Amino acid sequence: MAAYTSLVLVVSILSGVPFSESLDYGDALSKSLLYFEAQRSGRLPHKQRVRWRDHSGLLDGLDQGVDLVGGYYDAGDNVKFGLPMAYTITLLSWSVVEYGDEIGAAGELDHAHEAIKWGTDYFIKAHPHPHVLWAQVGDGETDHLCWQRPEDMTTSRRAYKVDEENPGTEVAAETAAAMAAASIVFSTTNPPYSRLLLEHALQVDLMIFETCVLKSFRMIIICLQLFEFGEKFRGRYDESIEVVKGYYPSASGYKDELLWAALWLYRATDNVTYLNYAIQNGESFGGTTWAITEFSWDVKYAAVQAIAAMVNLLQPFVYF
Fold first, then answer.
1. Per the domain annotation, does 313 fall within a domain?
2. Of 32, 71, 106, 198, which one has the fewest beta carbons inside 10 Å?
3. What is the CATH number of the domain that holds 182?
4. How many other CB atoms are there within 10 angstroms of residue 46's CB atom?
5. Which residues pair with 80 in a beta bridge?
6. In a domain, 9, yes or no
7. At residue 223, does pLDDT exceed 70?
8. Residue 294: band (very low, low, confident or very high) from pLDDT cuts 50, 70, 90
9. Contacts for 107 with CB less than 8 Å, ≥ 6 apart
10. Is residue 159 part of a domain?
């Protein structure tokens, strides 16, 4: 998913003030979003622009009795890795939240929304129960031994999940962050999607339900559940899903994802409970009181600092 990371960051950078009049940043933005269409898994829509791709992974999750069709393949692989995929959707959503007007001026806002929704639609399927999240489809070892188009896959499509007995805080919290950030994106632009998401409502605490504002409401509910799941049943996801260790192990642990998700939940719901969670745990969870040299699918502390700084711009007496 390293390619995802660089291209998502490009979306953020290119949507701001151009560095040079001689370079066509709008074209670069367009090609960055085309990349996501090329990485789509599942049944492709009629308006798919990358025409050399076709339907693939249509039986994903079948052996486990769950519909896991959709989502994104990882870089040049045919595996769907949940942690970097969720991180990608969080960053894409952040790009739209901060630079939506600029992306719209470049004529790419609809494509950005479609790229985000392709991911969140999959996350809804991958979260069929408040304390269950399907976090990987496919096996990296067999996949890397066989170079195939996803349309022709013959390698294992086994799916892996985290749950109460096999926790995965990093992937649960990052998926919560992705859903929270995406809920802001769709709060006014796609009300029918918000209503569709609401129809999928599962078990929600009434107090939480009443304190949420209507911002893609069902997505908020899901991310609240995911955050509660990740926070309550703590554990490294690469210890529950050992096959991911050779590809996306969690070197930083899960505390950075918990802070990251809490801040996005606060931005999405205006519920001060999540802001207080970040404030109260910021120092003890580490990474918020010194310079950080990395921001990646694994290490979120730098982004936690950035989001916290944005909160402080509105609430100058909040300290992290």
1. no
2. 198
3. 1.50.10.10
4. 4
5. 137
6. yes
7. no
8. confident
9. 26, 30
10. yes
Q: What angle do CA 290, 291, 293 make, to 5 degrees?
A: 140
Domain-embedded: residue 281: no
Comparing C-alpha atoms, which of 180, 86, 75 is closest to residue 133? 86
Contact, 189 vs 100, CB < 8 A?
A: no
Q: Distances in Å between the alpha carbon of 138 and those of 42, 58, 184, 237? A: 14, 13, 31, 16
How far is 127 from 172, CA to CA, in rounded Å? 9
Which residue bears the tokens 């040299």?
Answer: 293
Q: Where are the beta strands (DSSP E) in the chain?
A: 80-81, 133-137, 159-162
For residue 97, give its domain range. 2-253
Of 60 and 280, the structure prediction assigns the larger pLDDT to: 60
For residue 304, the tally of other CB atoms under 10 A from its CB is 27
Mean pLDDT of 255-281: 87
Question: What are the structure tokens assigned to 238, written together?
Answer: 């690469």
Residue 230's pLDDT band, with cuts at 50, 70 and 90, is: low
Length of the chain: 320
Q: What is the mean pLDDT of the chain?
A: 81
Other beta carbons within 10 angstroms of residue 267's beta carbon come to: 21
Q: How many domains, in total, are found in the chain? A: 1
**What's the CA gap between 143 and 146, in Å, rounded?**
5
Q: Which residues contact 258 (CB under 8 A, 6 or more apart)?
A: 169, 173, 227, 230, 231, 281, 285
Question: How far, in Å, CA of 238 to CA of 215, rounded?
Answer: 32
Give me the residue label for tokens 């639609």. 121
